Amino acid sequence: MEKPKLIVDGKRLDGRGFEELRPIKIEAGVLKRADGSCYLEMGKNKIIAAVYGPREVHPRHLQDPSKAVIRYRYNMAPFSVEERKKPGPDRRSVEISKVSREALEPVIMKELFPRSGIDVFVEVLQADAGTRTACLNAASVALIDAGVAMRGMITAVAVAKVDGQLVLDPMKEEDNYGEADVPIAFLIRNGRIEAIALLQMDGRLTLEETRRAIELAKKGVMQIYKLQREAIMRKYMREGEDYEGSAEAAEVAKELSENEGGSEKEGGQSEQEVKE
Amino acid sequence: MRKIVMPGDLIARNPRAAGYGTYVEKGKVYAKFLGLLDKTDTCVRVIPLKGRYIPSPGDVVIGIVREVTANGWVVDIYSPYTAFLPVSEYPENALKNRKVNEVLDIGDAIIGKVLNIDPKMKVTLTMKDRVCKPVRVGRVVAINPARVPRVIGKKGSMIKLLKSELGIQIIVGQNGLIWLNGDRRKVSIAEEAIYIIEEEAHTEGLTDRITEFIKKKKGELENGEA
Fold first, then answer.
1. How is chain B split into domains, by residue range?
2. How many domains does chain A fold into?
3. Is A1 inside a domain boundary?
4. A157 part of contact set with chain B, CB < 8 Å
5. Residue in A55, A109, A149 closest to B80 by CB
6. Do B1 and A259 touch (CB under 8 A)?
7. Is the peptide bond prior to B149 cis by the omega test (within 30 degrees of 0)?
8. Chain A closest-CA separation from residue B97 CA (Å)
9. Under DSSP, is residue A147 helix (H, G, I), strand (E, B) or coil?
10. Which has the least CB within 10 A, A254, A270, B30, B212?
11. What pLDDT was estimated at residue A246?
């Protein structure tokens, strides 16, 4: 197929500006049986992520006596692309699993859970370019939802070069016919970008373009970061019926905390009563 | 007022105030996991909203025997780590020269206490405590361990309420397993009440609503009998 024109009248094919993200929808805690989960839509990408753990590792020889092992599985559903994808891991998904795991590993406080394992599963239900970044975003929300100890949050976005122009968050046509595709993941802590957790490049960019791509990604990533936080807040606010600003939440939280210290003693006390 | 914090949120600038659920980097205190912020003048800490049970010494836990060995039992305590209960930590007078598997067998539930945890997270349990015993009767229900303080209530108020209203025995394990014993129908009411507490852990007037719930259920029970 011949390469279509990707930029028309200073706009992209779907009418977006160069620095505009696709619409994003994030929902936390969608799977009841998982410790943490997340459903994410980024344009036409549809991703579901589940986190289990920390839990015991099987097979045993994979255990690490000094820290937790992290397993990340990226998988595309056979129906996620137009031409049926043969199910099961292939070269591409094994590689994506590996780089994504390596992006998450320094963020998770593995040393707190020696001999245990944390399993992250991400399934691509529908693919439309930039799935590895979307998967990382979903995995990050699922990990927080699972209550895993982390140094910060991972947020990722891709930058592409199409028709000589750098664009944020490419969609399928731009990915297929563009000159370069650069997925970038950042570690964000307290609303500030602290480090680059993943950077890959398919195609060619000059040094100057790479610099500009990273700057562009930084802008996009902050918007996604906000949405990720909102998704988690929404889930726990639903439970607490408007957490912020409500006196009730404060009262409950106080109760929660007061019992934390004393609970063990209370437990002991109640058992004594039982004996009597 | 308590705020929800997420991993990496800056919560204090004084590293000496860092408490549970926080970590310090370059003299700043950050939250380690998702939870509620508890800030006082001397201490900041994060109360977890979710997560697995991580054992700590002295905790009363309920576990299930998964394996019997020559010198003890491997006990599942619903945590990332399995616990070990050595025969020597079982009350001597209860052993009575029986074989190990005759004392406790696979599938038996026990109420034990965490004795010690080594740096490799090998957990040792003891049953040489007056609260500890094998569970032979009653029912064990499981909840999210982060909700355990709520089931116990302020100074044990919730647990006292359940006990006095229903006249049953309850032991709450820190790992989120709760043992209930008594009249079967009343235990069922308590079980339902516990699930409500778990579900609505953050809502206002929970104790009042539970009181009402139990009264209603008890009324139904009595009407049924009459």
1. 4-48, 60-135, 139-225
2. 2
3. no
4. no
5. A55
6. no
7. no
8. 26
9. coil
10. B212
11. 39
- CB-closest option in A245, A257, A268 to B131: A268
pLDDT at A181 exceeding the cut of 90: yes
Query: Do the domains B60-135 and B139-225 sit in the same CATH topology, yes or no?
Result: no
- Identify the CATH number of the domain defined by range B139-225: 3.30.1370.10
- Which residue in the set A150, A247, A269 is minimally distant from B33, CB to CB? A150
Q: Is A190 on the interface with B (CB under 8 A)?
A: yes
The answer on A217 and A93 residing in a single domain is yes
Do A113 and A224 fall into the same domain? yes
Query: The tokens 């026990």 sit on which residue?
Result: B110
Asked if residue A198 and residue A98 are part of one domain, the reply reads yes
Same domain, yes or no: A177 and A249:
no
Q: Cis (ω within 30 of 0) for the bond into A59?
A: yes
Is the pLDDT score of A265 beyond 60?
A: no
Q: Which of A69, A112, A144, A150 is best to mutate for the B interface (most B CBs within 10 A)? A: A150
Among B residues 159-178, those touching chain A with beta carbons less than 8 Å apart:
159-160, 163, 169-174
| A248 shares a domain with A186 | no
Q: Which of A105-119, A197-211, A231-245, B137-151 has the lowest mean pLDDT?
A: A231-245
Which CATH number applies to B60-135? 2.40.50.140
Q: Do the chains contact at A255 and B4, CB–CB below 8 Å?
A: no
Domain enclosing residue A247, as ranges: 241-276
In Å, how far are A70, B61, B91 from A114, measured between CA atoms? 11, 21, 31
The reply to whether A114 falls in a domain is yes
Q: What CATH code would you report for B4-48?
A: 2.40.50.100
C-alpha dist (Å) from residue A102 to A65, A69, B17 = 19, 11, 32
Residue type, B140: V
List the beta bridge partners of residue A50.
A37, A121
Per-residue pLDDT, averaged over A120-131, amounts to 96
Pairing mode, strands B28-31 and B35-39: unpaired
Per-residue pLDDT of chain B (226 residues; tens, 9 = 90+): 578 999 999 999 999 999 999 999 999 999 999 998 988 888 998 988 888 998 999 999 999 999 999 999 999 999 999 999 999 999 988 887 888 889 999 999 999 999 999 888 889 999 998 889 999 999 999 998 988 988 888 788 888 888 888 889 999 999 999 999 999 889 999 999 999 888 877 666 788 888 888 888 888 888 876 5
**Are A158 and A259 found together in one domain?**
no
pLDDT at B225: 65
With the CA atoms of B12, B17, B23 and B27 taken in that order, what torsion angle do they form, in degrees rounded to the nearest 10? 70
Q: Is the pLDDT of residue A152 over 90?
A: yes
Candidate from B2, B33, B59 with C-beta closest to A147: B33
Distance of CA A21 to the CA centre of its chain: 16
